[in-house]
Request: fold
Amino acid sequence: MHDPNPPHQVVSASGVTLTLADGTELLDGMSSWWAAVHGYRHPRLDAAVMKQLDSMAHVMFGGLTHEPAVELVRRLVDLTPAGLDHVFLADSGSVSVEVALKMALQYQRGRGQAQRTTMLSIRGGYHGDTFGAMSVSDPVGGMHEMFTDTLASTVFLPRPPAGLDADIDAWIAESTSLVEQHADRVAAVIVEPVLQGAGGMHVYPPAVVRWLREQADAHGWLLILDEIATGFGRTGTMFATERAGVVPDVMCVGKALSGGYLTLAAALCTSDVVEGVEASEAGALMHGPTYMGNPLACAVASASLDLLGENDALAAVARVNAGLESGLAPARDLGHVLDVRTLGAVGVVQLDRPVDIPVAARAAAGLGVWIRPFRDLVYVMPPYVSTDDEVARMAAAVVAAAQSCV
Reply:
């Protein structure tokens, strides 16, 4: 409230450009917190919302249903890994994580394993700001350290080593010891596959996800994969779990699901999970958001999925990645830069010190780009529709922002 750097007032947005009240135009290097993958004011997405308004904006999703929701869940089942045949629509990513955790707890009760009330995760993760989501996020390096004493207890394995091809033998040895201590009381393990987002843009080996799948199968846990930030092509495959060749028991999606237009998320699960939940004493999943299955959000989400297919999202992400690789390369020559990394449409420069956020943001804005650094990271997640020139400008702005933090 007392920040001397007030927020910029955006008066309009189109394509990948934000227009401020003073007329300044900034390329949005954040994709509106990674959600606006098609940019702003896309005519197809605008039309989907307007068409849906002609019939209804919202109706409760308890005892009632509607075609936009039915159509969307059909598409999600077709698009996601085989076996995730059931969909629970939620109204935000954090809520979808809460739903996934409830699924795990009710599933275990349905199997006669009511003592399994603990979640397992890895250090460095971030799953949202609601209490269940906070409890499985990093307890020390994350945003929620002050709430530690009020959160449910979670078993945290070490953070996996960095890099897609890193050796994980030592990590497995250390993690195995913790698993052996706690396996009988764990209900589920939850991780962001391959890329930890707000916990530090940490890229780790897909082999870790495969090992966690094996542990879940061996010990009777569920595997929950949080693809809220990584899903719908952001990391270079439609879902990050594809790099591991693993199908989770529950998968959370959000952010890009609706193209950044309306808040919407989902928790998908297998038939086995549904049967376990229904076998619990409640007989049904104990969750029901007011705006679950909002027709406007569902309609625009289906249109967004259409665009992902028609525009070959993965080819677009590969093109963005190539631009980030070349554009961020000069940052490697800066003495205070620890690492430069890219994965799909994600580009990161990591410093050896905390970023001076106002200074870095001003440096990027000076080149016509909006970024939002955090901790020791200056990064971009461009909309997939960004042109090569726009990606180059975003990358140059990240380098300039990193240079400003000397």
About this structure: The chain has two domains: 10-35+312-404, 47-310.
